[in-house]
């Protein structure tokens, strides 16, 4: 007797924040999914993510908010500085001490966020070393071809596979646009540093660059630096962590950035990696008029709407979007179940 091929209910491509968040949301609703991740482990590229109140509402709905609060400090202030004059441009207070006001702002370590989203998933939800290279339609199903030559079928396909999304390409979304800027990000473990106890976000606006720092916990400081590459050498420096740090420091030391902030980047451990990449985005009209979904396939997160990190809304928007996706999915299932019950009742009456 021929063995029937297994068909997955939901396949999510990509085990980043949006992919794991979608899988966890479905799990909370009682729906099983399979997450395909091209790497051999969870990737924490980007080091940290700034999360504002709208992101925390979504994290609480997913049931991971309290776990993340235990390991990340509540940020108290936002300070915007001019790196040209050294003056403070603006300042905003979020909270005083541990008292929670309306603005809950924290800088989450990406590896801990991924851990929080994945720890409650059923075993074997995530399948590593599973890179999707091609997608076909087989009736109402999607047939996924993987890099190792295997295939699998799914009733629903959700692409959370980042800026180089295979699913977005299959849907016909146009290629991403280069913003003209590049960004580097890193992290420093400085338990005895006075700057690690400030519990704030600091932004610096300089000549053709922006920089910022925020505090993840009592010991860890996250930093980012965005700039406009002015020549080919600067573009090529992105491939080498040592060269990119030298490039950043040369720009900062010619400005009026505080010495202790420059030292954060100077002392960052290159063995932990230093992420640098061109910043890309999707043209807003592509989101309005493009095929962001097709029958039982759609995209979410960076595969749908990549954003530059200085906006600070990447995680908030993707988490809110996946909650909307989950609500629509559950509503659709309920409507299908109702139609099936009515169909069964009509058949019983005829019989």
Mean of the pLDDT scores? 84
Task: Give the number of DSSP strands.
Answer: 17
CATH class of one domain: Alpha Beta
Main beta sheet strand tally, sense and closure: 8 strands, mixed
Shape: elongated
The string of secondary-structure elements, in order, is EHEEHHEEEHEEEEHEEEEHHHEHEEH
Q: What share of residues is helical?
A: 25-40%
The number of helical elements comes to 10
The whole-angstrom Rg is 23 Å
CATH fold-level name of one domain: FAD/NAD(P)-binding domain
Organism: Dendrobium thyrsiflorum (Pinecone-like raceme dendrobium)
Protein name: FAD-binding domain-containing protein
GO molecular function: monooxygenase activity
Keywords: Monooxygenase, Oxidoreductase
Describe this protein with a few key phrases:
FAD/NAD(P)-binding domain; 351 residues; 7-stranded mixed β-sheet; elongated
Describe this structure in words.
This protein has 351 residues and is α/β, with parallel strands linked by helices. It has a domain at 1-41 and 128-176 and 282-351: FAD/NAD(P)-binding domain. 32% of the residues lie in helices and 29% in strands. The protein contains 10 helices and 17 strands. Strands 1, 2, 7, 8, 9, 10, 16 and 17 form an 8-stranded mixed β-sheet that branches. It has a 7-stranded mixed β-sheet with strand order 5-4-12-13-14-11-15, covered by helices on one side. Strands 3-6 form a two-stranded antiparallel sheet. Strand 9 (141-146) and strand 10 form a beta hairpin. The radius of gyration is 23 Å and the shape is elongated. The model has no long low-confidence stretch (mean pLDDT 84).
């Amino acid at each position: 007797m021929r063995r029937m091929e297994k068909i997955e209910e939901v396949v999510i491509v990509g085990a980043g924040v949006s992919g794991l968040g979608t899988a966890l949301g479905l799990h909370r609703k009682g729906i099983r999914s399979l997450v395909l991740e091209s790497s051999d482990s969870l990737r924490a590229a980007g080091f940290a993510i700034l999360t504002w109140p709208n992101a925390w509402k979504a994290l609480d709905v997913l049931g991971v908010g309290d776990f993340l609060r235990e390991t990340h400090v509540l940020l108290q202030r936002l300070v915007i500085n001019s790196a040209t004059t050294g003056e403070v441009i603006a300042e905003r207070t979020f909270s005083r001490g541990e008292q929670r006001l309306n603005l809950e702002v924290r800088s989450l370590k990406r590896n801990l966020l991924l851990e929080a989203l994945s720890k409650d998933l059923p075993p074997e939800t995530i399948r590593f070393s599973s890179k999707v290279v091609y997608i076909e339609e087989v009736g109402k199903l999607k047939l996924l071809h993987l890099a190792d030559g295997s295939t699998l079928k799914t009733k629903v396909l959700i692409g959370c596979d980042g800026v180089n999304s295979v699913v977005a390409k299959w849907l016909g979304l146009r290629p991403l646009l280069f913003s003209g800027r590049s960004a580097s990000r890193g992290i420093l473990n400085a338990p005895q540093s006075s700057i690690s106890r400030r519990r704030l976000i600091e932004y610096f606006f300089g000549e053709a660059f922006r920089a910022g720092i925020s505090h993840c916990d009592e010991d860890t400081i996250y930093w980012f630096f965005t700039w406009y590459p002015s020549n080919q050498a600067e573009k090529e420096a992105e491939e080498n962590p040592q060269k990119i740090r030298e490039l950043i420091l040369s720009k900062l030391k010619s400005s009026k950035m505080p010495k202790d902030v420059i030292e954060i980047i100077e002392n960052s451990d290159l063995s932990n990696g230093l992420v640098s990449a061109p910043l890309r985005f999707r043209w807003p009209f592509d989101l309005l008029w493009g095929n962001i979904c097709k029958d039982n396939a759609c995209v979410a997160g960076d595969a749908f709407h990549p954003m530059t990190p200085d906006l600070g809304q990447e995680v908030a928007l993707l988490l809110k979007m996946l909650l909307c996706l989950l609500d629509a999915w559950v509503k659709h299932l309920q409507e299908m179940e109702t139609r099936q019950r009515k169909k069964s009742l009509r058949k019983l009456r005829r019989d």
